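Hello,

Our lab assistant flagged a job as stuck in the queue for most of the afternoon. It eventually completed. Since we weren't sure the result was trustworthy after the delay, we are filing this so someone can double-check. Below is the sequence as submitted and the structure that was eventually returned. Let us know if re-running is recommended.
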Amino acid sequence: MLKFLSVLATGTLLLTSAATAGSFNLGRAATPAEVAAWNIDVRPDGQGLPAGRGNVEQGEEIFAERCAVCHGDFAEGVDRWPVLSGGDGTLTSERPVKTIGSYWPYLSTVFDYVNRAMPFGEAQSLKPDEVYAITAFLLYANDLVEDDFELSKENFTSVRLPNEDGFYMDDREESPVFKKRDVCMKDCKAEVKITARAQVLDVTPEETKAAEEAAAAPEAPKAEEIASAEPAPAVEPAPAPEPVALDEALIKKGAKVFKKCRACHQVGEKAKNKVGPILNDIIGQQAAVVSGFKYSKALKQLNGDGLVWSDENLDAFLTKPKKFVKGTKMSFAGLKKEKDRVALIEFLKSHSQ
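-- returned structure --
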C-alpha cells in the first residue's frame, strides 16, 4: 500500500510540474488526416461541402433502402421517429410540425446532419454523392424542387429553405424585459392554480364503442317474419356508364406522384389495406366504405353525410387533408401543386374502371 501511495505521489508531482510548464505530456499532436476526418461540418455559405452530386430519383432509392425504415417512404415518419416532410404553415398552430420544409433554416443543416449522423447506427457510412442525392430527395418530399432536380456543390447555396428568415441572433439579454426583470426564486405565488391542461389525444380503441352500438341496435327480424314479408318489386339496374378515355401521359406523371402515397396505400389486383385503405375504385366511391379498414370517426361521419369522392372533393382533400377532414388520422400534409393533384387523380382513375 505504501509503495502504491509513493508511486501515486510521484505521478502527481510529475503531472503538477508538467502543468506548470504548460504541457501535460500526454498523447500526441493530431495528424492532418485525423483533423480532416473530424472537421466535416458544413456551413450555410457552402464552406466544408465535398465535391459531388446526386438527383431526386437516386435519392429516393437510397432513402427507401437506408432511411425509410425509420422515416417512412416519403419522409412522413414511422411511429415516433422524426417527420421530415410536411408541416407547412403549422409553426404558429397549437401543434407545430417542425420539418425540413417548415422549420429548418439552412440546407447545410440537412446535409451536415445526414452526412455526420445518418443512417442511425451506421453514421458516416454514406458517400458524398449519396448524401447529395438524399438531400435532393428531401427537398422534393417537401415540394421545394421538381422531380428532375440534381443537387451539387456548385448549385447548393442557391437553394433557400422557406423558414430561413425565421431564425435570428438571440438578443434577449439586450431586451428591456430581460434587463428590468425581477427574478423570483422562492415563494413566488401565494397560491398555485391549474390554468390549462395538456391536450388529450383520442387514442381509445373504438371496438368497445362499436360493441355498445351493436348491442343498442334494434333486434333483427326473425326468419318467419322475413318469410311472410311481401317481396320488393324488382328494380332495373342502371346502365353502366361508358368508360372515359384517360390521358396516358398524365397517368405516368400520376404514378410518380403516387410514390408519396404508397407507404400507406396500394392499388392494383394484389392491393391490400395497410396504414391506409386500398384506393382501387376510389373515384366516385362513397367515403369510408373499403371493407376491412378501420376508419377515423371523422371519415365515418362523412360516410354518414353521403360524401362521394368526386374529382372536386378528392382534389380538395389532397390539397390539405386535415383541413378537408378535421380529425383524420392521415398524417400526409397534402400536395401543394395543382398539376400533381390532377396527375394523381388521373392515375387513380386508371384504377377505378
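-- support follow-up --
The delay was a queue issue, not a problem with the job. The result is valid. Residues 39-166 form a domain with the Cytochrome Bc1 Complex; Chain D, domain 2 fold (CATH 1.10.760.10). The longest helix spans residues 2-21.
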